[in-house]
Design goal:
Blueprint: E1 6-9, H1 11-20, H2 37-49, E2 53-56, E3 59-62, H3 68-74, E4 77-83, E5 89-94, E6 99-105, E7 112-118, H4 123-129, H5 140-149, H6 151-155, E8 160-169, E9 174-183, E10 186-193, E11 196-201, H7 204-215
Antiparallel strand pairs: 1-7, 2-3, 4-5, 4-8, 5-6, 6-7, 8-9, 9-10, 10-11
């Protein structure tokens, strides 16, 4: 799968592809109703026709075209992005060499999911272009005085949430939650895990720290 290429799947097709992929437990985007047996049979037929699965002896397997699903299933972490107030949701599978995005697509009669692959270096631009984030106007050096002025708010952050990012072990527990919020003193980045909560002014460097922890080892 090339960066920028788009592929579409029904919920049943998504389940079949992930179940046939190599790997262990995996996180999956949530939806209201699970596919029934008829839906799964229809998904198998559709995936055969699209050349995404094939027979290998007495078993089914992913074709070369469907192998990104093995990368998704073997990814070390999965991120759930939720934008407010739109309710837009995306699941990101963060692999060693690539990031895959799975997003529900609004359709009248059929629920579908859009899959795309993105390069790690492009994730910041994608988040701003997709309107999950606004580009920070401040740098850490600019925010030093603001941090002193809004010390109380930073110690007990609140305000309306623009973006929530939940980072999970793929197929496992929640590791941490980031929120970008609008407080009365300005926009904040808040990180919560089982060790507690920490907030800072929404600066270019704060955004980079958040994205680096969530999407990769190199600064973003």
């Amino acid at each position: 799968m090339r960066a920028g290429e788009l592929m579409y799947f029904t919920p049943a097709e998504l389940i079949v592809m992930m179940e046939l992929a190599d790997g262990g437990a995996y996180s999956m985007i949530r939806w209201d109703a699970q596919p029934d047996d008829i839906g799964l049979v229809q998904a198998l037929a559709s995936l055969f026709q699209r050349g995404l699965i094939l027979r290998e002896g007495d078993r089914l397997a992913l074709s070369a075209k469907g192998r990104p699903f093995s990368g998704m299933k073997q990814a070390g972490s999965a991120l759930l992005l939720s934008a407010m107030p739109s309710g837009r949701v995306v699941v990101c599978y963060v692999g060693k060499d690539a990031i895959w995005l799975v997003e529900p697509v609004d359709e009248v009669l059929t629920q579908r999911f859009r899959l795309q692959q993105i390069e790690r270096a492009a994730i910041r631009d994608w988040l701003t272009e997709a309107e999950f984030l606004e580009f920070p106007l401040l740098h850490d050096a600019d925010a030093a005085e603001l941090s002193r002025l809004f010390e109380d708010e930073l110690s007990e952050p609140s305000g309306s949430v623009h973006l929530r990012l939940e980072r999970y072990v793929n197929g496992g527990p929640l590791l941490c939650t980031y929120e970008v919020t609008e407080g009365w003193g300005g926009r904040l980045v808040t990180r919560r895990d089982d060790q507690g909560c920490a907030a800072e002014i929404y600066t270019d460097e704060a955004l980079s720290r958040m994205l680096t922890e969530c999407f990769g080892e190199e600064p973003i």
